[in-house]
Design goal:
Layout (H helix, E strand, L loop, with lengths): L18 H22 E2 L1 E5 L2 E3 L15 E4 L2 E4 L5 E4 L3 E4 L10 E10 L16 E7 L7 E9 L20 E2 L7 E2 L3 E3 L1 E6 L7 H15 L3 E3 L4 E5 L12 E4 L9 H12 L3 E6 L4 H14 L4 E2 L8 H4 L9 E2 L2 E2 L1 E5 L2 E5 L16 H27 L14 H8 L1
Parallel strand pairs: 13-15, 14-16, 14-17, 17-18, 18-23
Antiparallel strand pairs: 1-12, 2-5, 3-4, 4-7, 5-6, 8-9, 8-10, 10-11, 19-22, 20-21, 22-23
Helix pairs in contact: 2-6
């Protein structure tokens, strides 16, 4: 939301109330209400606003009797500003999209708030209802729109249908899976990117990362992963390529090599508060040594999380870990060097569903809870670093004996 001071009408005896002052006085209360909503809540559907297939109305021309009529049911939504969208009665709506390309195309049905003052009317009554607009789009909903449903529509004069399975809608059927419900705003929304090396894109790590981010919201109301996970190449091609991400996840087993410019790009990202999460198998000696070398070149010390303060955020927030868990009968280790977090073990393999569906629920839950702690650490590090960004310059420290720490872990 845009940050602007609120202006309140100062009341005194003899004050002349005209239309402009009356309007600004009421706008003040609307703005306060909107700031309150935006600060604590997210937009979405509050109640109702179902979408059902109906026959064509009797009074429409015959060319529109094409099996593409919907009825939006009464209900309430609220937009990103905090404006209530009230649909008081059923609305008939015709899907008119004509798909000219060969492939199916997504059609979005959305509703948005309309301020009466934005309408051009010949006659204005004393009280004007706040209203709404329903649109059919071929682009995703914008910031001010609330999605009612979507349809993957085939080319040609196809008719619409109800899905046989609402969780797996077919072509030309109503899809309600992406409707957003109005809800409380989480404290942290973590933006994550998956890093791929130029040589290969390894394993199911991207899918497992998706499982973690999807589960974060259900495990805790304070941390949520951003819905979109982008893929970036590692090493980072320039200093600004990853600046918008709280955490970069780099799985794999290969050794990591950075030239001076690539090392500078990584340092630039870490200095903004970002976190690089590197995962490595326990037997990938070359990879582990390469991470040690990178941290040495950055002037930071890899330290065992177990030897750090017992109240380190990755151990207690939001979930408490007294000891590091064991996955696949292998003890897991976490080393921290400033914004670099090195996980030695199979943490990400336990974030999702393995191919044989053999992982116990307790193992998945434990891995996800530790993953949420890492997400929370990354978000908080980014936020607190940016709070001081304008006034304090980061200072490099002389590296300690990193290899002695590494030897203790073997």
């Amino acid at each position: 939301m845009e940050i602007q001071p609120l202006e309140r009408l100062q009341i005194q005896d003899g004050l002349l109330i005209n239309a402009e002052r009356w309007k600004r006085s009421h706008d003040y209360h609307r703005q306060r209400q909107n700031i309150y909503y935006q600060s604590l809540n997210e937009p979405g559907i509050v109640h109702g606003l179902g979408v059902s297939l109906i026959p064509a109305p009797k009074d429409v021309p015959s060319q529109y009797n094409d099996g593409r009529w919907l009825q939006i049911q009464p209900g309430i939504a609220i937009d990103v500003i905090g404006n209530p969208i009230v649909v008081p009665q059923p609305i008939d709506f015709h899907i008119s999209a004509d798909i000219t390309e060969e492939k199916p195309r997504l059609i979005y049905l959305v509703v948005r708030y309309v301020d009466p003052e934005s309408l051009q009317r010949k006659q204005v009554s004393e009280f004007e209802p706040e209203t709404f607009r329903i649109d059919e789009k071929t682009t995703p909903p914008d910031t001010f729109e609330v999605e009612l449903c979507r349809i993957l529509l085939q080319p040609g004069l196809v008719t619409l249908q109800n899905p046989q399975d609402v969780f797996y809608p077919s072509l030309n059927s109503l899809d309600f899976r992406f409707r957003k419900v109005a809800r409380s705003r989480p404290s942290a929304v973590v933006r994550v990117a998956h890093l791929d090396t130029q040589e290969t894109k390894e394993g199911n790590s991207f899918a497992n990362l998706s499982y973690l981010l999807n589960s974060a919201e259900n495990l805790t109301y304070t941390v949520r992963g951003d819905e979109q996970i982008d893929r970036l190449l590692f090493p980072l091609p320039d200093p600004t390529s990853a600046v918008n991400y709280d955490l970069l996840f780099l799985p794999g087993s290969r050794s990591l090599t950075l030239n001076p410019q690539e090392l500078a790009n990584l340092k630039s990202y870490l200095d903004t508060g970002g976190v690089l999460l590197v995962e490595s198998p326990t037997d990938a000696v070359d990879r582990l040594e390469s991470v040690l070398e990178i941290t040495e070149n950055l002037g930071t010390s890899l330290e065992d999380l177990r030897l750090l303060d017992r109240n380190h955020p990755m151990r207690i927030k939001p979930f408490l870990f007294a000891a590091m868990p064991v996955f696949n009968q292998k003890p897991m280790q976490i080393l921290v060097a400033g914004g670099i977090v090195l996980v030695i073990g199979d943490l990400s393999l336990c974030w999702g569903l393995d191919e044989k569906l053999t992982l116990p629920r307790e193992t998945i839950r434990t891995a996800q809870e530790l993953g949420v702690n890492i997400l929370n650490f990354a978000w908080n590090r980014k936020q607190m670093t940016q709070l001081r960004q304008q006034t304090i310059t980061s200072v490099s420290t002389k590296p300690d004996a990193l290899k002695s720490i590494f030897n203790k872990l073997e």
